[in-house]
Amino acid sequence: MFDPSTVPVVGTDAHLPPVPSQSLSAAGLRQRFRAPPVWQPEVRREPRFSHHALRAAAVLVAVLERPEPTLLLTQRTAHLPTHAGQIAFPGGKIDPHDADATAAALREAHEEVGLAPDRVEVLGCLPEYTTGTAFVVTPVVALVPADARLTPNPHEVAEAFEVPLAFLMDPAHHRRHQMDWEGRARQWFSMPYRDGGQERFIWGATAGMLRNLYRFLSA
């Protein structure tokens, strides 16, 4: 089984400034989405390694309103057909009955972690991100009260957990990996987080979308 954590690190971005703490507060995030800057996402698509037709998907990038804001992530169960066992945002395919990407992200978050849609304050969306597995993902950024109740669905989610937003928005923690894959170089970000005695290896599409969030908030 492919283990991305064993792929060499070719660099980090400690030379880039972290997002200031005031910009990570609920008020700061609301203001940024109300008046977005001119900016460009850094990562738009991954090299394709799937022959599937492109499929629309959405994820919920949920920031919990704690004194030190945190980001909600999940550990996917090992038996899922795509991205099994990986760390991800709550989310999935956009169904025909979903009104839009936001509706899909809210529905999936409710199904996966039991997050009630009426506890979610949607701020806006980041640009689409195309994964190597042929999903065109819309990241929906939202605020969630710290007391929101979560009930992970054991069929899809092995665990739901939180990572400090300040950690993820500090490029000193953004590692760059590179390897040769089917004759071409493939690069990606990782943001390993030490959670007590356990390392949460955040990488791939999740890390790429977080890198775009960093670019948006630091622009």
Shape: globular
CATH architecture, please? Alpha-Beta Complex
- Helix-strand makeup class: alpha+beta
Q: Measured on Cα atoms, how large is the radius of gyration?
A: 16 Å
Distance between the termini: 38 Å
Instruction: State the name of the first-level CATH class.
Output: Alpha Beta
Q: What integer is the average pLDDT?
A: 92
Describe what is shown at a glance.
The protein is 19% helix and 33% strand. It has 219 residues and is of the alpha+beta class.
Provide the descriptors you would attach to this structure in a database record:
single chain, 219 residues, alpha+beta, Nucleoside Triphosphate Pyrophosphohydrolase, eight-stranded mixed sheet, three-stranded antiparallel sheet, 4 helices, 13 strands, 19% helix, globular
Describe the structure.
The chain is an alpha+beta fold. The protein has four helices and 13 strands.
